[in-house]
Amino acid sequence: MVINMNNNTPKIRFKGFNDAWEQCKLGEVVNFKQGIQVDLEKQYSNPFKDSIRFIRIVDYTQNTNDKRYIKKVDNANYVNIDDVVMVRYGATAGFVSYGIKGIIANNMFTINAEKLNKKYLYTYLKMDKIYKQLNLSNGSSAMPALNFGIVKDIIISYSNESEQSKIGLYFNKLDTLITLHQRKYDKLVNVKQAMLEKMFPKNNSNIPEIRFKGFNDAWEQRKLESLIIKGGSGGTPTSTNDKYYNGDINFLGISDITNSDGNIYKTEKKITQLGLNNSAAWIVPADSISLAMYASVGKLAILKVDSATSQAFYNMVFDEKSTRDIVFHRLSLANIINEWDSLISTGTQSNLNADKVKKFEIIISSNINENKKVSEFLNNLNNLITLHQRKLDKLNNVKKSLLDKMFV
Fold this sequence. Notes:
Elements: E1 2-3, E2 12-13, E3 22-25, E4 31-34, E5 51-55, H1 57-61, E6 68-71, E7 78-79, E8 84-87, E9 96-97, E10 102-104, E11 108-112, H2 118-125, H3 128-138, H4 148-152, E12 155-158, H5 161-199, E13 220-223, E14 230-233, E15 245-252, H6 254-258, E16 263-264, E17 269-271, H7 273-277, E18 289-292, E19 300-303, E20 308-309, E21 313-317, H8 321-336, H9 354-358, E22 361-364, H10 368-405
Parallel strand pairs: 5-10, 15-20, 16-19
Antiparallel strand pairs: 1-2, 3-12, 4-11, 5-6, 7-10, 8-9, 8-11, 13-22, 14-21, 15-17, 18-19, 18-21
Helix pairs in contact: 2-5, 5-10, 8-10
């Protein structure tokens, strides 16, 4: 690849291509064809003689296993596996995809072009700037409906067919790599969920379904408050007092824990000692667990730095890492099996309270060595998941950067 500085060419392009790119409205180089409406009773779950795949929005957006088939229809919009399809109606209006052969539903349409390589066209229409253009043109963030006129006004830049083909193929390979890592990540997350459910007792049992050799004793039921040396919610300094903020004390908020991978190394906000002294907040030491009681109810994080927290959290301090880890994993399971639901108070915002959290009962082994082995296994699984998440994030960032630099 080579780097260019010409405004009519991308910043990065393949060697051997030097011509300026052309630019026009999408409607000048493509044609559109809408799908058909098929009543639900005429859609079947299994193929039959003279049937064809009926493609719905969920087939593209959710990759559902619930496939549908219909009787072949004359003059319908048949799509090939590489045809570019855009969603026209609903919350996913503007979503672009390809990869399924059949007849599309009437809430989608195909975008076909003789001058544009299909993989190139797909990549171009998937860019954020195109979605934003459709969003603004429609005048609604939810984009409940698009029309061909809006899509026709999209400005598209393109080069010759050979360069388009190289660009389209390059991003196709990059998308395949991203999909591969996404599947590995999803598989690991599913493995973790399954292991959490099998490595802790359930259904009023005191013996887990899977355990390490050498451990046979029944597990015991404990309240959270009996496992911690200190616990309690935080507090928030008055937001209108500038002297309380922009200090050097980390201050954990809901956005920090919502976006975390299970560990908090830094916080968006910091408060001053004055702010701490004039609120119910207290310094929660590193290696403690913070559990969200409002908004993202049940969301967990392990503090890797000393932090104050808002009242939205119940904070738990432990004297042993092994105890903290087994509690963390058991509370992760509580989220998976929705154990908090029966304790949540409803109102303007769903929430727990500190008393309910500290009285919450869990079953763990009375043998510290068994707890350590369970936690070590689950910690290693978490580390592997985090590694794949970082690889996935890196690939997505690479793709975003190249989309900005390989197109005009």
